[in-house]
Specification:
With 188 residues, this protein is α+β, with helices and mostly antiparallel strands. The chain is built from six helices and five strands, in the order E-E-H-H-E-H-H-H-H-E-E.
Length: 188
């Protein structure tokens, strides 16, 4: 049996309950969302629902999936429901359309944004797990080296990718930065 599944979090304050988040998971991931509420749009909506005395409805949409199948189905469902930013229902941070930003005339091939956002989610998970495993925290260079993400662009060593992801995890409230510039999990 394959361990991955796709789930939806639904707002019970509407009838019928409307999905507001679609994700992939294994184990208890779908239910952990309501136990470990963060500062993202999803977390704020979960807090609103719980403050109203309601429980978030968690629905498994598909199970027994490989990770590849789960990633593809997750992207398809997010694209189908749409995100709040694109006039849809979901508060997911994935941007499912090829809309360019700031009026740039960059051609974005179909599916490129979804693949980038899926890759970003996987990288965020990996760096977050690294921070959890290292109770004294991690610095950017350690994260880049440990995960094989060091840059050698033009002979330089600018690890902007891991730095950006650490910043996203800080903004989501999953990490904190201490006085020694080490990033620690808020889960500890």
């Amino acid at each position: 049996m394959n361990p991955f599944y796709i789930y939806a979090l639904k707002d019970p304050r509407r009838s019928p309950a409307k999905p507001f988040y679609v994700g992939k998971g294994t184990g208890e991931r779908a239910w952990d969302q309501t136990l470990n509420v963060d500062n993202t749009r999803k977390g704020k909506l979960i807090s609103e629902i719980m403050s109203a005395g309601q429980d978030v409805v968690t629905t498994i949409l598909a199970d027994d999936l490989t990770e590849s199948q789960a990633l593809k189905l997750e992207a398809e469902l997010i694209s189908a429901f749409g995100t709040v930013d694109t006039g849809g229902l979901l508060v997911n941070s994935v941007i499912p359309t090829g809309v360019s930003s700031r009026g740039r005339s960059v051609i974005v091939p179909d599916g490129a944004i979804e693949r980038a956002q899926i890759g970003l989610a996987l990288l965020k998970d990996a760096i977050y797990e690294l921070a959890i495993a290292n109770q004294n925290g991690i610095i950017n260079a350690e994260a880049a080296k440990a995960l094989g993400l060091q840059s050698s662009y033009s002979g330089g060593s600018k690890d902007y990718l891991t730095w950006s992801i650490l910043g996203l995890l800080l903004r989501e409230g999953k990490l904190v930065r201490d006085e020694k510039r080490r990033h620690k999990s808020t889960k500890l």
